[in-house]
Amino acid sequence: MFLQRFRNVRSFRGRSLSSSATSRVREFKVVLDGQTLYIEKPLAEALGWNPGTSTEGVSLRLSGWEPKFFAITPTGTDSDLLARATVESSKNPRVQQVLSYLKQSDSEP
């Protein structure tokens, strides 16, 4: 529901935000072993990895909004700013009211 309703939201504090002009939603299989998340190469590339960064790595941030919204983004990117802004706004009572209203209107026939 969140993605459907807010997919076109593209600004935060006057700055244009977008994960990518050509981005699309994709699903990947991942494996968690302890605190290590193993991912496939296409997912690594989508998060900014390339063969030139293999030993250096890519800095990522895990942001979360209980109970369902968690995002892993490359640190310092527009996607990171959007995820962090979403988590921060989740604490705003007015935003909570709007989301409750949207959930209610989704469940109505």
TrEMBL record:
UniProt name for this protein: Uncharacterized protein
Gene source species: Thelephora terrestris
